Amino acid sequence: ARIWDYFNKRKHTILVDSSQTLDESNLQMDQDILLEVQVDEFWPSGFGMDSTGNELALVPIEPLRSSTTIAGGPTLSNGHSTSYTSSFFQGSTLSSPFTDMEDGYDTSRPVTRSDRGGLAGLQNLGNTCFMNSAIQCLVHTPPLVEYFLQDYTDEINGQNPLGMNGELALAFGELLRKLWASGRTPIAPRAFKGKLARFAPQFSGYNQHDSQELLAFLLDGLHEDLNRVKQKPYIEAKDSDGRTDEEVADECWRYHKARNDSVIVDICQGQYKSTLVCPVCNKISITFDPFMYLSLPLPSTVTRTMTITVLYGDGSGLPMPHTVTILKHGCCKDLSQALGTACCLKSDECLLLAEVYEHRIYRYLEIPLDPLSSIKDDEYIVAYRIPKKRAELTRLEICHRYLDNSMSDNMKDCERKLFLTPLVSYLEDPQTGADIDLAVSRMLYPLRRKTCFSPTKAHGGKENGSVSEAIDESINSCSDLSGSGKQSTDNNTELEEMSSRELSFQLCITDDRGLNCRPIVKDLLIKPSKLVKVILDWTDKEHELYDTSYLKDLPEVHKTGLTVKKTLQDAVSLFSCLDAFLKEEPLGPDDMWYCPRCKEHRQATKKLDLWRLPDILVFHLKRFSYSRYLKNKLDTFVNFPIYNLDLSKYVKSKDASTRSHVYELYAISNHYGGLGGGHYSAYAKLIDDDRWYHFNDAHVSPVTEAEIRTSAAYVLFYKRVKS
């Protein structure tokens, strides 16, 4: 007896007894094998009958896999995929020098396109829709079609240790030739998948994978297999050292081409400028690096909305919450800058960020490059407006405490509890308790219940910690300590008169942990220190004089329950994704840069700019996000142009005007569904027909331009429009 690989009801190769796995033998899920039994020294002449006329057993090959498919169609209980319909070929097996190629095309023989070439689908071999989608986009890339339909054997680099002995390029070229020569007959990419599993084991088996990850591997693998450079020279990288960007960029590109020269580099590789700035010594390092594609973040994944309450450190205004939108992976400096703009920060002021926990200051966020990821959405963050020149000043931190007599009306020593939002101010060399008392009076002055506005009005105009414009005007007119005129003079005079009397408040000075409270008296000497912490004990008198509602109920950084579902009106443009990709941002703590001037690793800021664009420009939309505890897919609709994608303003090279930077869309790799289950397909345009088609595994159907823009778009392929 002998056993044949009987894929698509055709004899391919005899399966001999060996240690090869099913993958290595190119045996696919759901395919048949043919058992031939020799009778009286004769082998059966038919393909479906033995010598006695009985039907032969067709044994389904079912590799071990999960009973639940991730993509590529529904799965039956026995694990068989039903996502495609097999197309049976007729006729005998063709002899071929390529034993693993189904049709055995000769790669040295130029092939012309058939009249209806490029409309063949690819059979799903079991969760291979990700591969089919990426391949269809590549085989409809015009320069690659022209290249692989010609004789390219002279460019096969079988000696490149970074390549795959030319086998990946041969397998891809063979598959492309079949797709362009077979009309509409679906192709089973078995040989190509076998090569893929051999050289990239991560894509072996029948699990779902990412089409963009496969695309990145294919482009890199094809480049190495077709690299015209047989011996790569060693070239030491150089820093810019004050030279012009044009000179450095051209030098870097020459060095890159001296080691990497292939059709992939010719059409798919561009160059971007990377600028690193040391936060300590301001050393600037500029490098120019090649890219094969651009992975663009979606703005909804890179921005973050944060609500922070801003308080005046000199008592010149009421606390006010501000909501700002900043980069999610930004730093505290970005938050301070956004808040400063929102609250109209003065030129001689800066913001001191702090986290409030249980009515104490839990921590100060004073390091500008600390990542915003350290601030959680359910935390309470405040910002104090303080003077820029504070190096010689003393920080005064004020917490509030009240007498909790809820246990018993007869208890004299009831428990004292903290409440309200802490206040922070800066003093110039406080000497005595009177100085502290005067500072507390200044800080509380905007909260005084004055005759110029009633307590009822103050409460009525307040919503979520903010006050109405009427209250703002009243406060500005009667308590702006930094203003000019008689009112400001009266306020200062009143505060000075208060300082000449006994202390106005019951104050205690504490240690760093808020313990060891000592009452503050008028003549108490304050030890010189950078930080003085005091506790203000509120009595009925303070409650009558001051409206505490402005210091209560801090808003959370971000209240997720109020998030409104996104609609198509919230769609983002491809340009906004590109802006987010090119925006300056600090490096992460795990990606520190070694500063050659400081001789230490620094958390530098990084800025990318496009310098040189390729003829084929690929955009990868980063829809998938992964963290330690969460995996997510964004179905945000990205509005991308089909024609006239003009990137001229993004290209920073002075020589950019010599080439067109206008692009036209010609292919899209789509992903439908979520992470737990999904499906890939492709849209591609036949340039000769000027018509779009939907390639859904083996099924190919025409579509209109209006249909190709969807929220499933994952990888976009553009070609340069000749000027």
Automatic annotation (TrEMBL):
Recognizes and hydrolyzes the peptide bond at the C-terminal Gly of ubiquitin. Involved in the processing of poly-ubiquitin precursors as well as that of ubiquitinated proteins. Belongs to the peptidase C19 family. One of its GO terms (molecular function) is cysteine-type deubiquitinase activity. It comes from the Eukaryota. Transmembrane segments: none annotated. GO terms for biological process: protein deubiquitination; proteolysis. Residues 120-721 form the USP domain. Keywords: Hydrolase, Protease, Thiol protease, Ubl conjugation pathway. The keyword Hydrolase applies. Its EC number is 3.4.19.12. It is an enzyme of class 3 (hydrolase). Residues 476-492 have a biased composition (Polar residues). It holds the Pfam family UCH. Gene3D superfamilies: Cysteine proteinases. The keyword Protease applies. This is Ubiquitin carboxyl-terminal hydrolase. It catalyses: Thiol-dependent hydrolysis of ester, thioester, amide, peptide and isopeptide bonds formed by the C-terminal Gly of ubiquitin (a 76-residue protein attached to proteins as an intracellular targeting signal). Residues 476-496 are annotated as: Disordered. PROSITE patterns: USP_1 (PS00972), USP_2 (PS00973), USP_3 (PS50235).
